[in-house]
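From the shared-data thread, chain only:
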Amino acid sequence: MDLNLCLNAYAQGAFPMDEPGARDIGFYVTDPRAILPLDGFRVPRTVARRLRGAGFEMRVDQAFGEVVRACSGRRLGGTWLTPRLVDVYDRLHAVGAAHSVEAWRDGRLAGGLFGVALGGLFTSESMFHAAEDGGNAALVFAWRHLVARGYALWDIQMASDHTRRFGVREVTGDEYRRLLDDALAQRPTFT
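Structure, as tokens:
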């Protein structure tokens, strides 16, 4: 897949998903669209309490490939993150457009998430945990990192029961497009 095509799709509000055996990687738009509000993100009390003593060391872009490959592990109902889409994200990372947020404990990758940064937009594509609360630590750190770096929009495409605990909002396609246009006009840097 051409990286400019992929980045242009993100700039238009679409995101890639793949299916094993499909001829091409497809692009999708969801309506409603799920976002994690940077100014309304909630850390559930139980999560905050467990993270205080969890001993995670947080890093950015130190193990991008490991994070993506951990996220691509089989899940119920198959996976959208096929080897050829992993390759796309690896190439996006090589050109500075894709990033990982990682939780480490005792020298081991305990959890993380990855996504694409474009202007003031960050799209979280997937997350994983290998240790209890490793994924939650990455999610909370990503929020703090995005706020500190001046990002405007944190897109997660589709809400889940887990992300609802952190204050996910679902917006209409029209509202998402307005938020996206505003975010793309900004120029924060991820690292």
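The chain has one domain: 33-184.
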